Structures are given as C-alpha cells and as structure tokens.
Amino acid sequence: GDSVITVQLTEEDKVEDDVVFYLVFTGSTVQHCTSTRKINPGSLETISPGHDCCETVKVALCASREGHPVLVVAEESFQFVQDEAYDAAQFLATCAGNQQALNFTRFLDRSRPPAADVDFLDEKVALAFRHLKLPAEWNVLGADQSLSENIPRETLMHFAVRLGLLRLTWFLLQQPGGRGALSIHNNEGATPVSLALERGYQKLHQLLTEEEAREPDSWSTLSHTVHSGDYSVKHHRGLDVYMLTAEA
C-alpha cells in the first residue's frame, strides 16, 4: 500500500472537468474505492490501498457525473505482493513474547544500520504492521498475560526503541500492552524509556513519556484513517485523495 498509481486516459476518455474518476479494487474479502486527482487532461493519480493478503485483484476505473449513471471506463488486474517489510512485520507480530526470537533480533543493533536505512525500515515495517490482520487477542507483550511486570524480559517495545524506530514505536503504543511495556525491564535492567534516554533519542523519549503525546506532524503527510465497523476511510494528505475500504 501507499504507492502512487498513475492512470493514463485514452483520447476518448478525456472528458469535461465535471467528471470524477474513481478506482475500485475488488479482492477476495476486501474492496477499496479510491478517489483520484487530475494531473492533466490525460492523467490521473491516486494511492494504492494497503490490502489484507497477497493476491491479484480486479481494478475498475469508474467515471461519475452528476445526474448520470456511474460508468466503468476500463478494467485491469493489479497484484499485491509480499515484500521484506511485510515478512518482517509478520515475524515481529508472531514473536511478541518469544524471548528467544526477541533476543535474536538484537544482532541488528550491533550492526547499527545507517540512519537513512533505519528511517526506511521504520516507515515500511510500521506501514506493513498497520495492514496485518492481527488476532483480536494480540498483545505487544505476547500471549502469556499472567507474567508479572517485575519479571525481566525483552519486549517488542525494547526492539523498536533500541533501533530508534519512531513510527513502529508509535504504532505499538496504540496496541494492547503497548503502554504496559514501557515499565518492563529487560535482563540488563533497561526499560524502553531508559533505552531511549541512554541512546539520546530525544523525539522517541518524548513520545514515550508525554501523556498527551500525539502522532508527530512530520508524518501527517502520509495519511489519516478513521475506522467504523467493517469500513475505514483514509485520507492521504500528500495527494489529497480518499480511500474507502470495506469487507466484501
């Protein structure tokens, strides 16, 4: 999801300004409808939706005009593929609470990837996490909720903070167990909050300690999503396009 899609119109499809174009993506269980913006008389632009599985879906370009029926202008197929970021998000989601797996991820810290790579990783993995179908009972601290806060252990929050993954940390904070993870010490006695401070991650420390902390403005160009039952509406501020997603 969140890639720019360009639609080239044929000569006969270039019509008056009062015609509005939409793309409708129909998958096996989910359907998305995205608005478009006109770049010029022959080109449209929109954002690809984040889909719930890897499959080939049908895409219809629809034209709407007040007082007229909606027309299907063209149809095409579109393939959603599984990339490394999605694999990483799936791995992290399934190893929440798995100490062996979480300790294994610490080798990433020793390799210290460059800041640009960390930023790219952060954006892509956080985006993939948003599109994962997490079980209703999923928790940042893992499946075993009987563990006391006093038991030292590694958590997903330690992983995200150690690498300075701002967006992923913000996502985890909104999930069940996210706030609870902030006070858990690992085997070295560090909490996610103390790790952020020790490493000089000022923005991250602020995110973890401010009660009224909001999603950083610098990410607001990405998107804002509102969920309601089986529906969600997403506004991509950069292109000013909207996306309606519904269970088919």
TrEMBL record:
A GO CC term assigned to this protein in UniProt: actin cytoskeleton
GO molecular function, one term: MAP-kinase scaffold activity
Family matches, as Gene3D superfamilies: Ankyrin repeat-containing domain (1.25.40.20)
Superkingdom of the source species: Eukaryota
UniProt cross-references to InterPro entries, sorted A to Z: Ankyrin_rpt-contain_sf, Rho_GEF
Coiled-coil positions: none
GO terms under biological process: adrenergic receptor signaling pathway; positive regulation of canonical NF-kappaB signal transduction; regulation of Rho protein signal transduction
PANTHER family the record matches: A-KINASE ANCHOR PROTEIN 13 (PTHR13944:SF18), AGAP007712-PA (PTHR13944)
Listed name of the protein: AKP13 protein
Lineage: Eukaryota, Metazoa, Chordata, Craniata, Vertebrata
